[in-house]
Amino acid sequence: MIEKIGDWERSHYSKQLNAEMDSQQAIVMGWVRELRDLGKVKFIKLADREGFVQIIVKKDMDEEILKKFKELGREDVIAVKGTVKASKMAPNGVEILPSEIRILNVSERPLPLELETRKTPAELVTRLNSRFLDLRKHEVAAIFCISDSLKRSFFDYFKTQGFIDLNTPIIVEAAAEGGATLFALDYFGKEAYLNQSPQLYKQMVLASGFDKVNIISRVFRAEPHDTPRHLNELVQMDAEQAFIRSEEDVLKHFDGYLQYAIENLNKNCAEQLKLIDFKIEGLTFPIKRLPYDEALDELKKVGIELKWGEDLTPEAEKKLCELYNPVLITKWPSSVKPFYCMKEDDPKYSKGFDLLLNGTEISSGAQREHRYEELVKNLKEKGLDPVDFEFYLNAFKFGMPPHGGWSIGLERLTMTLLKLANIKEASLFPRTKERLIP
């Protein structure tokens, strides 16, 4: 029978219980992960967000509790009020002797996904089809606690650097990159798109006097990728700064943010890192700056030859990170960078850069072109019509300061830092060419 929660309020998560609370009262809530009946004594393994707590049901307990135990099944939702008892044999060194159990909801069985870690793990596609169950596994939930920490660290770090957190439109009329890889939608009879980047808007904001801004937003890419490191919907974290002397003024924030984020992970997510059996190690700071031409020379030494002007292949990215990890590839050919990227004095090179970590590109950025005439020229060179970008170009007619910045995908960062096999593991409900539900 399903019961109401009544006036009960959770007093503790499982990890908050400890042996020093012996004989104290507690209310815990969660899912029945496992049931064991040894006759004289019965066990309920209760799972909550933080971990597990063991509930002990003895044969001399109230008849109502014994009856409730017989009614329970795996993944039923329950609340338990009882006495904490120190026990060296139990998880966290404590167990609970219940005085009352309330069954808040019941689960269908069999389960579509096995939750016990000792069983053979399901394929990723099976896990994603029942993602709500998959996320009950603590080692899966740990990934998102780590991702949350990376996002919080981004906000907190840039706050300490004097940046202002802003939001920009997701529904737009023009593409940031000028490409056709956009999801179109009807906007009151007009054609509009889901934004692929806040790039144009964060630059426009710098012309408004907000000279240091950071943005955390969803972006959308209508690219039919089918790879372990691409999504069609993702969380992007952007930073943009005005009155810079060179791209180095924004590059330094890679060092600052990543070291700050990793420090916070080791301090605040030690339990989650332990759950996924992972240590963050082997990273060197300050980050090595490696010009594109030198990167090609390094690759040639190890048998990887790329034509000048080509993007780096996954194999090349992996090899460079065997030499320097992480590494910033700077001074890219202008031909492979967007129109808003400033060129060097030698115009075949740009002030653009990419960040590689653990063998994967995770971020791109540049010193931007802030001069109106040069920006229009760049648009035309890329085969784009300046008329389509008039709303953006207007910001450059009335005093745009020198500026630059970068963006980093949260899911890509999480996947790469933790060395996950597939970016879908770092996305709560991933959107790809083949997956629109759940």
3D architecture notes:
With 438 residues, the protein is an alpha+beta fold. It has 2 domains: 14-105, Nucleic acid-binding proteins (OB fold (Dihydrolipoamide Acetyltransferase, E2P), Beta Barrel), CATH 2.40.50; 138-426, Bira Bifunctional Protein, Domain 2 (BirA Bifunctional Protein, domain 2, 2-Layer Sandwich). It has 12 helices and 16 strands. It has helices at residues 63-71, 124-129, 131-134, 138-160, 199-206, 248-268, 270-275, 292-301, 314-323, 372-381, 390-397, 410-418; strands spanning 25-37, 41-47, 52-58, 77-86, 94-105, 164-165, 171-172, 184-187, 190-194, 212-220, 233-242, 288-291, 327-330, 352-357, 360-367, 403-409. The protein has an 8-stranded mixed beta sheet, sandwiched between helices. It starts with 24 loop residues before the first strand and ends in a 20-residue tail after the last helix. The model has no long low-confidence stretch (mean pLDDT 95).
